[in-house]
Amino acid sequence: MKKNFLRFIFSIILILFFSIIYLSTIGIETKRFNQQINTLVKNLNNELEIELRKIKIVIDPLSFQINAKTLGPKLKIKNKIIELENIKSQISIKSLINNQFSLKNLNISTKSIQINNLISFSRIFKNSPELYILEKIIRDGYLISDMSFEFDAKGNIKNNYKIKGLVKNAKVAILKKYDLKKIDFIFDLTNKELSLKDTKFLLNDIPLIAEEILIKDNQKSFLISGTIETKNISSKNQVLRDLLVSYFSKLKIFEVNMNSKNSFSFEIDKKFKVKNYQVSSVLDLKEFKFKNEYQLDNFFPNLKEEIIFNNHQINLSLKKNNLLIKGKGDILLQDKLEKIDYNIKRKNQNFYFETNLSINKNPFLIKILEYEKNSDKKANINLKGSYIVNKKLLIEDFSIKENNNEFIIKQLETDRNLELKSFKKINLKYSDKNQIGNKLTLTNKKGIYYLTGSTFNINGLIDNIIESNEKDKVKLLSKKYDFRVKVNEVYLDKDFVVNNLKGSFSLKKNKILTAELNANFSKDKILKFTVNSNQQEKVTTLYLDKAEPLVKRYKFIKGYKGGSLDFYSSQKNGNSNSNLKLYDFKLTELPILTKLLTLASLQGIADILSGEGITFDEFEMSFNNKKNLMTIDEMYAIGPAISILMNGYIEKNKIISLRGSLVPATTINKAIGTIPVLGKILVGSKTGEGVFGVSFKIKGPPKNLETTVNPIKTLTPRFITRTLEKIKKN
């Protein structure tokens, strides 16, 4: 009996041993726990159903729990079916015996399923803000995921859940005009954080790569941070073009090619408002080409129609409303590449900038100052200042330095329309293209500007005043500015110099209000310029004992020599009446006059003009100006060889219409000599050779003038009267 009992006990132990070994290694399949799992799922969400096959159970005797696994289950949510790869769980044997909630955890592996269905499923277990955001913005895409949940004794999901997976070909809708598609990434979701790794996607066909993007729940907001790279993006992409236009609206951009690496972070509150954003970027700008719409040919003579930035390394930092850009690289303005570096800072709506441009291989000039850079020297242009939006532009320091030449401006300020308000100091020290050493200083002392120096060549400045159109003039000076002048030597050109230029003048809206300037060519040869203005009239006078440096600049006069100039002008209500007189000068070439003489068969006089030139005793012109129309009331010139009387009008750049009489001096003498008594007193008994004078007309566009000539036998009373007046005066 005892042996039988022992055998029974041994058999039971052996059966239990082999059963435990079998259940802990091979396990069994059962549907016993299906109902408990279904009940659990229904407790999570009454609309959630789960379709389970048999559950395979394997016992873990050491931890006194059961490992359960089922293959190919299906979840049904509002007529949406999610096919799963498997579900695993651990069941507490003790809780099961005590009829308590026995499910310790739940591990779910999915097949390739639609993202939105899985997000909806995940939100049933845990309606986290991260999942809510994903559900709102994700439109398409598939994923494979592993989800791990732990339960407390009451069957509630603990906060240590983990969801990992792989997303392929997703699409996200954030903003209407931005299309995010073909999104691939690996994700890792916990209670407080969503991590996206190895992310690749297209932003409106721009390929982007993100090493890692983190979304953290800070209770009141979500902190999003990460790094995104772009490679070989160009302006052919519309998103980049739109972005460039938004920041550079005034530029006509032809081409952009660049790489970038961008680190970013920002917060989104519960109402989806973005705040505390920060962006840090490293841009590798291969090429940036845009249309040159700047009038810089007075500085860069070989200026291209396009400006090109090549191989620029740019660091960009954006924090709230503050932007910092620091970069350097090559720039093509003319024929060869040069170097440029720059710092730009935007604080709120105000800009602060500093830049340096090196010019080594290309020409550089300042046309108005007749300065040209030495071809074998390098020039550096530095600019530092700030722009207060809708208020002012302040140039703190501006300098151009090349060898011993330097141009420096300090504290120049303009208003919002770029009209000059003030500056502190301008220093000029340079040798111009005529090897004239210029040294000049313009200093602001309590609102009065003092122009002082030893030498200044104003040849280019005079050319600029004569050649410029009213439309070309930049209106810089809005208010009144007073100047005091004292310069030892002033070059009118390379041959004519005045000494001891002194005086004062005032400017307003780029126009001279008052002036009184005096200088000496020599002890008895002077230059004097005056302007006097009141509310009704502006009177201008200019006297030069040496008129050549001024008169010879006019293109229609060639070969002018000698003479003095006396000019008077009165301006009222936009109209000016002027009188110009020249004395004792010679013309060696005057195309219109030569043509007149040739057409009139006055070849002898024409030969004189083309040879040594024709001398005039006096020239006088009375004319008035109204906008672009000059009306010549009378232009009269008298000399030993010929005399001319003419009138007409000139509409600038449109038409010229002149008519008059040209008479050789011998004919004048003969005509006046026939006057009883007075004729002999004035011209004696000389009768001349009987050559007739001519009347002429000149009309047409400036570049296509037509000239007609007719002989005259009788001089007009006006011609004789004007001639007598001149002879009497002499």
Keywords:
730 residues, alpha+beta, 40-stranded mixed sheet, two-stranded antiparallel sheet, 42 strands, 55% strand, rod-shaped
- From the spread of the alpha carbons, the general shape counts as rod-shaped
Strand content: over 45%
State the helicity in percent bands: 10-25%
Task: Find the count of extended strands (DSSP E, 2+ residues).
Answer: 42
How is the biggest beta sheet arranged? 40 strands, mixed
Q: Runs with pLDDT <50, length 5+?
A: 670-691
Task: Provide an overview of this structure.
The protein has 730 residues and is of the alpha+beta class. The protein has a domain at 585-729. The strands form 2 sheets. The chain has a 40-stranded mixed β-sheet that branches. Strands 21-22 form a two-stranded antiparallel sheet. A hairpin with a 4-residue loop joins strand 3 and strand 4. The N and C termini lie far apart (172 Å). Residues 670-691 have low confidence and may be disordered.
Compact description:
The chain is α+β, with helices and mostly antiparallel strands and 730 residues long.
How are the secondary structure elements laid out?
Blueprint: H1 2-25, E1 28-30, H2 34-44, E2 48-51, E3 55-60, E4 65-71, E5 74-77, E6 80-92, H3 93-97, E7 103-110, E8 113-114, H4 115-125, H5 129-137, E9 138-150, E10 162-172, E11 180-189, E12 193-203, E13 206-217, E14 221-234, H6 238-247, E15 253-269, E16 274-291, E17 306-319, E18 322-332, E19 338-347, E20 350-359, E21 365-366, E22 371-372, E23 379-388, E24 392-402, E25 405-415, E26 420-422, E27 425-431, E28 437-445, E29 448-457, H7 459-467, E30 481-491, E31 497-508, E32 511-520, E33 526-533, E34 538-544, H8 548-551, E35 558-572, E36 575-589, H9 591-599, H10 603-610, E37 614-626, E38 629-638, E39 642-651, E40 655-664, H11 665-673, H12 678-683, E41 693-700, E42 706-712, H13 717-729
Parallel strand pairs: 29-30
Antiparallel strand pairs: 1-3, 2-5, 3-4, 4-6, 5-6, 6-7, 7-9, 8-9, 9-10, 10-11, 11-12, 12-13, 13-14, 14-15, 15-16, 16-17, 17-18, 18-19, 19-20, 20-23, 21-22, 23-24, 24-25, 25-26, 25-27, 27-28, 28-29, 30-31, 31-32, 32-33, 33-34, 34-35, 35-36, 36-37, 37-38, 38-39, 39-40, 40-41, 41-42
Helix pairs in contact: 4-5, 9-10
